[in-house]
């Protein structure tokens, strides 16, 4: 399909995409409760003739497989302050455009739309990776919105993005309660252990690398000031440029809490809460997206030398499983960034939807090229294979 064909396809599906985008934005749902978003996407797919649909929709036969990830969970109290309504809409639009291209060309190849719950909480893609959802996938594509204020005038976004790996864990200290005034010596203070561990993490931060992060909170530390707390709970996240480095730093953090338990006489346990791998962008896909967008008359960056984005996503776990890509596009949000109320307002605007439509054209063109261009598909695969050796560093 020529470039104009993808633009025509996106325009043909515009009304459907607008309805889906508005419905998801107006009904924000948290992790594993995204029933309206799920049903809206499924209903949209069922309205398209010849598309076999369920939570995972697929069209085509034989050949290679391209998957588009559609996230749609919201944030507590903030709604769609990460713009997942636009992620779902962009992936749906690209999927439909590639379906149109496959119908027109009668080429072998399969395109999938995969519904992704719980990205913001425990990583829905991690569970899908474990269930083999990406085993036969030649490439997995998606895009994520951010504030347009980070880009020069006329630049729609960035074809390149790389994120940090993160591990998360919960620490529980258990002591012995006692009256804080009558007999404090009979107690074992779990809150003291939590404070000692938290303080030790602060000391550890002096010796970590500039591109590493440790953040955490004390979630529970007692019920009354006149009772020695017998239980305290903390949650922490450890980030680094690679998952292997994040795990190594996590081990050092765990030692801080082990020492705090020994110093205070508390018992403790640590519960791992999961890990998001660092996102490994596929460079041929980055370049292909930029080329496609330029061909459509749009300007995007492909700044492969810029610093790693100091955030994390379970798309990183997918990038360890198959060639993957997460492009970034800017939306008008009055300078507000993701995970803020201001960004939620921007994510639901008509102007942001229009930006989404433009990027769908490039997403579709790249997906179809992977299915139809043997040489390009081999370049994508080779780049993924060369990154594998680095996964344990």
Automatic annotation (TrEMBL):
Pfam families: M20_dimer, Peptidase_M20. CDD domains: M20_ACY1L2-like. Residues 165-258 form the Peptidase M20 dimerisation domain. SUPFAM superfamilies: Bacterial exopeptidase dimerisation domain, Zn-dependent exopeptidases. GO terms for molecular function: dipeptidase activity. NCBIfam families: amidohydrolases (TIGR01891). Belongs to the peptidase M20A family. This is Peptidase M20 domain-containing protein 2. It comes from Cadophora malorum. The lineage of its organism: Eukaryota, Fungi, Dikarya, Ascomycota, Pezizomycotina.
């Amino acid at each position: 399909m020529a470039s104009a064909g993808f633009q025509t396809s996106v325009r043909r599906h515009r009304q459907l995409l607008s309805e889906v985008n508005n419905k998801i934005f107006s009904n924000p749902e948290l992790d594993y409760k995204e029933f309206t978003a799920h049903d809206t996407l499924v209903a949209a797919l069922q309205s398209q003739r010849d598309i076999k649909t369920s939570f995972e929709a697929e069209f085509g036969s034989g050949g290679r497989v391209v998957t588009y990830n559609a996230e749609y969970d919201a944030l507590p109290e903030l709604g769609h302050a990460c713009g997942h309504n636009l992620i779902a809409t962009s992936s749906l639009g690209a999927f439909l455009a590639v379906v149109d291209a496959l119908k027109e060309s009668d080429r072998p190849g399969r395109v999938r739309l995969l519904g992704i719950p719980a990205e913001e909480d425990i990583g829905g893609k991690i569970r899908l990776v474990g269930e083999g959802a990406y085993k036969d996938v030649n490439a997995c594509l998606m895009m994520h919105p951010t504030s347009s204020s980070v880009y020069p005038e006329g630049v729609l976004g960035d074809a390149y993005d790389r994120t940090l790996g993160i591990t998360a864990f919960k620490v529980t200290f258990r002591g012995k309660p006692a009256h804080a005034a009558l007999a404090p010596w009979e107690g074992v203070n779990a809150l003291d252990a939590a404070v000692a561990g938290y303080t030790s993490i602060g000391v550890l931060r002096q010796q970590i690398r500039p591109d590493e992060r440790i953040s955490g909170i004390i979630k529970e530390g007692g019920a009354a000031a006149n009772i020695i707390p017998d239980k305290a709970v903390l949650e922490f996240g450890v980030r680094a440029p690679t998952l292997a480095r994040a795990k190594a730093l996590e081990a050092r953090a765990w030692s801080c809490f082990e020492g705090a338990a020994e110093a205070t006489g508390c018992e403790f346990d640590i519960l791992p809460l999961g890990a998001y791998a660092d996102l490994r962008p596929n460079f041929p896909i980055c370049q292909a997206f930029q080329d496609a967008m330029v061909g459509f008359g749009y300007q995007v960056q492909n700044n492969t030398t810029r610093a790693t984005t100091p955030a994390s996503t379970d798309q990183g776990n997918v990038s360890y499983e198959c060639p993957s890509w997460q492009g970034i596009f800017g939306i008008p949000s009055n300078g507000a960034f993701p995970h803020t109320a201001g960004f939620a307002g921007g994510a639901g605007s008509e102007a942001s939807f229009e930006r989404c439509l433009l990027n769908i054209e490039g997403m579709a063109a790249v997906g179809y090229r992977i299915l139809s261009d043997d040489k390009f598909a081999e370049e994508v695969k080779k780049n993924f294979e060369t990154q594998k050796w680095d996964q344990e560093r």
